[in-house]
Design brief:
Mean pLDDT of chain B: 87
Shape of chain B: globular
Low-confidence stretches of chain A: none
Oligomer: heterodimer
Number of strands of chain A: 0
Largest interface: A-B, 15 and 27 residues
Helix content of chain A: over 70%
Mean pLDDT of chain A: 87
Number of helices of chain A: 9
Order of helices and strands of chain A: HHHHHHHHH
Largest sheet of chain B: 8 strands, mixed
Distance between the termini of chain A: 20 Å
Radius of gyration of chain B: 27 Å
Number of helices of chain B: 25
Number of strands of chain B: 27
Largest sheet of chain A: none
Strand content of chain A: under 5%
Helix content of chain B: 25-40%
Chain lengths: 271, 693
């Protein structure tokens, strides 16, 4: 943790993320208004003391909506990334260690998934299963598992020929134990970096899906949705667009900087 | 034989100190070293890893990277002060008057430029030749370094030629401009023994022809004995002894030199006759070097003054220098760091228990190579890599069998096939009369318990995330099904058996030295009390002074456990020391099997004869036959009919060697030789390859 603060860029990134997480956690306590509270009288008000980020055309407080939206986007992206990491790691470990036909088939299948742009793949999936919160989770897992599996697999390939892994095999260790006790610890540094990076992409994906209207549905205060809604009225209520868009950008940049710092910390200690 | 008119040495280094920057501070890697190299002289720089020899060589060439710098001292090259020159001036000297032959030729040759062009480039740059002249001269140079078919090689890319040839190209490049000083940084370390011998011969001839001065950096004392005129011994960055080669080997004056000479197994020296002495402890890391005598912590002759005051560099004779407080006593013969220990009595069956622990019959390991689409369409048959091509071996209980071969001989593949990491494709492997399934996964835990292995690379031998205790507990829990308490007690005993303190149980591998890691790996292998232990080059990656103690440890443990050992190595001296019987393997097949004592006596298989004559001996006075093999070890995809050695055999008979598989010829001592030449003829043709002076 401390190491992340040594570099100025990763310090900034980590701090930003921490701020957003805290905001998401304590959202309801900080937000002055409810997410869908419409005050007709305040409609289209520019930023002021009453409404720090202004009000949108329906009189909803933008500031509150941004804060409450943080929770949604972070939990969706976070949980989705976690699931993708778990499934990607399991498959990568197994595939890398087993090798052979299983590995070939799985990797070619993943290659075909990776050949499609993430957003396109997401839209295809959502078209089939219908938009909802759970659908978004599924989409994140499907889209990002292949990359995580690839990264894990490449480390497994490098590690499995090392003396200590062969020694474990010669001493009759069970395959499960070899994967998790001998190989997995060497995988963790690369995996942590990749997970952080996937997290930032997942945030962006959730926001994009919201923007396109196939993610979280209104009236939820999803940032992507907010950007989409405010798009048509940008001349009247530009703040209703800028603030959610800014929030997306800043969060993604922050997580990216943190991932970069993580990489420097972990992969200079490693090989 | 110094010509009084040529008093100026080619290289003159005075009180040189070289340091590396680590964070904020500078750590001295080389401290206060002085030496002189005369014209035509080959000067050896000997030391183990961490001695600073490479740093010194690079510093002399002013090739240090960003992190290193010369802190004090002077370097005079052909009368000029090198340290004061700017880089533009140095560039005129580099390659023209001062050349380097580095350790790894493949990383020093540009992979995308043809060989001829790389040679020609140096010539155009420094000798000012025209393009045509340079190209012609390049071919001539290749011929001079005895590269067969120089036109073809000149047109090839580096990866298309073998390691030995690449190194010859590097030598050609270095000598192309007739430099005054040639710096060689372990140039033959990566080469096979037989290739190394030819390259060393070449090198010696060229040096004499050109009267080039040379600085030869190496850790191999045998090589030093063969080609160096003078030797400087470096320890932890300091020059501890400097003498002519003959003097150094005949009468070493510094305890470290004596210890080194004692640590290296001589060819033909067996554990029963003479025990190796290692040097306890390890080289102090940078930044932890004592201000007093740097060798004192490990020196068996250290007295109080050694721990308090740094010895000066004295000159016992006009021709020698040594940095030791007690050199006078050593010179007078009153004390010595060399201790001759008589060997352990041979233990175990001498035929009493004939039952072999390991029995291999016609074992083959063939890998199919996947054909490319083009090959399939052309109807070409699939090629196979014949890594092991029919090996019969058996090891009686309690004996050690050494398997010796060069790279590509199949020795490692055979070891892995016995263990099951690689599947044998033919033949039987029997352990204690029970046939073993080819794959490790098919073998039960009971089988695994009896058969364990120690690998070559100690750095990767241990899981970096598990403590020593956890690593040692695993085989006990799995293979012996011990309870946690029993396992813990046994772990303590194992650590004691490999001479490591009990406190190491909690240490992580990152906190251990290379030798210590290998000890833990050995302890782990012995944990289940295996009947057969396989050592796959167990000491090759370790420093010379550490090797001896590991070899002795393996010997002791084997005696203690009553186990049998299969020792794989490329180093015939190591195998000759530790093994009771030796098998020589070439191109996947055995050439000779004999007891360790018999192997070094005639009759020899022609390959064994060539091997023995190729190995550089430590004793510069000893006489050695000069048999050199042409070409390289054949690639395992080549199908060679008849005798696999016939393409390079100095005693090639004729058609019979090409068409017919040789018989096994057995002599009265039980030595087996795979050759068409009858034993009696071999006996008449061959002298002892190595004769004492």
């Amino acid at each position: 943790m401390r190491a992340l603060y040594r570099q100025p860029t990763s310090a900034i990134g980590t701090t930003l993320l921490v701020v957003f997480v805290l905001v998401a956690l304590f959202g309801p306590l900080i937000a002055p208004y409810a997410a869908n509270e419409q005050i007709a009288a305040d409609a289209r008000q520019p930023p002021s003391a009453a409404h720090w980020f202004g009000a949108d055309r329906l009189g909803r407080d933008v500031f509150s909506r941004v804060i409450l939206g943080a929770r949604d986007i972070l939990t969706l992206a976070g949980f989705g990334t976690l699931l993708a990491v778990i499934s990607g790691t399991s498959l990568g470990l197994l595939s890398g260690y087993q090798g052979g036909l299983f590995d070939e088939i799985l990797m070619r299948f993943f290659d075909s998934l990776l050949a499609m742009p993430a957003l396109l793949l997401a839209l295809l999936l959502l078209g089939t299963i219908g938009p909802s919160r759970n659908s978004v989770l599924i989409v994140i897992v499907v889209v990002y598992t292949p990359i995580v599996a690839r990264v894990v697999r490449s480390v497994v390939l490098a590690v499995k020929t090392k003396g200590f892994v062969e020694a474990a095999r010669v001493q009759g260790e069970s395959r499960r134990r070899i994967l998790f006790r001998e190989i997995l610890p060497s995988v963790l540094p690369a995996l942590a970096v990749e997970a952080a990076l996937r997290f930032s992409y997942a945030i962006f994906l959730v926001a994009s899906l919201g923007f396109l209207g196939v993610g979280v549905q209104p009236p939820n205060p999803d940032w992507g949705l907010m950007v989409n809604e405010a798009r048509t009225y940008v001349s009247q209520t530009p703040w209703a667009l800028y603030y959610p868009a800014g929030a997306i950008s800043i969060l993604v940049i922050g997580v990216n900087l943190m991932a970069d710092g993580l990489k420097r910390v972990l992969q200079s200690n490693g090989s | 034989m110094t010509d009084p008119l040529e008093v100026t040495p080619v290289l003159s280094v005075d009180n040189l100190t070289v340091a590396y920057r680590q964070g904020e501070s500078w750590l001295d890697a080389v401290r206060d070293v002085s030496l002189r190299i005369e014209a035509g002289q080959t000067y050896g720089l000997v030391g183990e890893s961490g001695s600073g020899k490479s740093t010194l060589a690079l510093a002399i060439m002013r090739y240090l990277g960003e992190a290193g710098a010369v802190r004090r001292g002077t370097i005079r090259f052909a009368g000029r002060d090198l340290l004061s020159l700017a880089e533009t001036d140095m560039r005129r000297i580099w390659g023209a008057e001062l050349s380097l032959v580095p350790q790894d030729p493949l990383s020093s040759l540009n992979p995308s430029i043809r060989i001829g062009e790389q040679l020609a480039e140096t010539l155009r740059q420094h000798a000012g030749l025209t393009a045509a002249e340079a190209d012609a001269r390049a071919i001539e140079l290749l011929r001079r370094v005895r590269v067969p078919d120089p036109e073809r090689v000149a047109g090839s890319y580096p990866h298309q030629i073998s390691g030995g040839m690449q190194q010859r190209v590097m030598i050609a490049m270095a000598l192309s401009t007739e430099p005054q000083l040639l710096v060689l940084d372990e140039p033959t370390t990566a080469l096979d023994v037989t290739t190394q011998a030819a390259v060393l011969d070449l090198f010696r001839d060229l040096i004499q022809e050109h009267r080039t001065a040379a600085l030869y950096v190496t850790h191999n004392l045998g090589v030093v004995a063969r080609i160096c005129d003078r030797v400087a011994v470096l320890y932890a960055g300091e020059l501890v002894e400097d003498a002519s080669t003959a003097d150094l080997f005949d009468r070493p004056l510094h305890p470290y030199t004596q210890g080194l000479l004692d640590s290296v197994p001589r060819l033909g020296q067996n554990k029963h006759a003479l025990q190796l002495q290692g040097i306890p402890g390890q080289i102090p890391p940078l930044g932890e070097r004592p201000a007093a005598c740097i060798y004192a912590p490990r020196c068996p002759l250290a007295i109080e003054i050694c721990h308090q005051e740094r010895p000066a560099l004295d000159a016992p004779t006009a021709d020698r220098r040594v940095r030791c407080h007690r050199w006078r006593e050593i010179m007078a013969g009153e004390i010595s760091a060399q201790q001759q220990h008589s060997g352990a009595k041979p233990v175990g069956a001498n035929g009493a228990d004939d039952h072999p622990v390991l029995n291999l019959q016609d074992v083959e390991v063939h890998y199919p190579i996947r054909r490319s689409v083009g090959e399939v369409l052309a109807g070409l048959p699939p090629r196979t890599v014949r890594a092991v091509d029919g090996v019969d071996l058996s090891i009686p209980r309690g004996r050690t069998l050494g398997l010796v071969g060069e790279s590509g001989s199949g020795k490692t593949t055979l070891a892995r096939a016995v263990i099951g990491l690689v599947e044998s494709t033919h033949g039987t492997i029997e352990l204690l009369d029970i046939p073993l399934p080819p794959s490790l996964t098919q073998r039960g835990l009971d089988t695994l318990r009896h058969l364990q292995i120690v690998f070559q690379n100690p750095e990767e031998a241990l899981n970096p995330y598990l403590t020593v205790g956890e690593t040692l507990r695993r085989p006990l829990r799995i293979l012996l099904r011990s309870s946690r308490q029993d396992a813990d007690a046994e772990v303590e005993r194992l650590l004691a058996a490999v001479r490591l303190p009990a406190s190491y149980v909690r240490r992580l591998p990152g906190q251990l030295s290379g030798g210590e890691k290998q000890r833990v790996a050995i302890a782990r292998a012995f944990a289940s009390n295996p009947d057969l232990l396989i050592g796959d080059e167990p000491v090759s990656a370790l420093d010379v002074s550490v090797q001896a103690s590991i070899l002795n440890l393996l010997n002791e443990l084997q005696i203690e456990h009553g186990s049998t050992t299969l020792l794989i190595s490329h180093d015939l001296a190591v195998v000759g020391y530790l093994a009771d019987d030796i098998a020589v393997i070439y191109a996947g097949r055995l050439m000779e099997v004999a007891s360790a004592a018999d192997l070094f006596e005639p009759p020899y298989h022609p390959y064994t004869e060539a091997l023995l004559s190729a190995i550089p001996l430590i004793d510069p006075e000893a006489q050695q036959e000069h048999i050199r093999l042409d070409g390289e070890v054949p690639s395992p995809t080549q199908v060679i009919t008849g005798c696999p050695f016939h393409t390079r055999c100095p005693r090639f008979l004729g058609d019979i060697c090409v068409t017919q598989t040789p018989p096994w010829r057995v002599d009265e001592n039980g030595k087996r030789i795979f050759c068409h030449i009858p034993l009696e003829e071999l006996r008449l043709m061959q002298d002892r390859v190595i004769r004492d002076a």
